[in-house]
Amino acid sequence: MANTLEIKKLSATSVSAADICRVLDEANIGFVAVGNHCWAEAFPYRPTMEVRMAHNGKQLLINYRVTEECVRAVAPHDDGNVWEDSCCELFLSPVADGTYYNLECNAAGTLLIGFGAKREGRERAPQAVLDKIDRWSSMGRTPFDDIAGERTWQLCLAVPVEAYYKHSLPSFDGLKVKGNVYKCGDKLPHPHFLSFFPIDLPKPDFHRPDFFGSVEFE
Known about the structure:
This protein is mostly beta strands. The protein is built from two helices and 14 strands. Strands 1, 2, 3, 4, 5, 6, 7, 8, 9, 10, 11, 12, 13 and 14 form a 14-stranded mixed β-sheet that branches.
């Protein structure tokens, strides 16, 4: 099991979300499994999730790939309950000050960003910040209800450094930070919880930075 999530630097600049798959393919950036099946006894269904990431200094390029039995993206707008849908999440502490950001995006590219030190009292990013994140989904960008039948879908996000809006980060270059990657779907027919770094708790809770692992940007 990986102890570090490594994010390579690419020379490509101003990458759109729709181009991320191609750019990462050309750079031979491979997927890694988000393979910890959290709280499996209570939530036995296990989809497959993989992620690959790279950066160019100013943008974090994320590509999620999911295979699951039902896909859902009901949240009608940004800052909605996207975690109830087929949802991919990156939690990151870019500065070692006890705070972290949760970037959560459903299969239709609808997202939210929260900021704070713990689950309670989190501040939601304003729409002007969310609008800076370019999104592409193989399922399209229109909200949809449950689509049954196993399928594989992909989601790409081009996240500018400005999305971490509470900190004045000059770039992603050389950051050695803490974080985790998750997959959930609280209102899917079979709710589930996957993580990249393991979480040792009795019941579901992703908002636990004490279980974050090392994330290193080249």
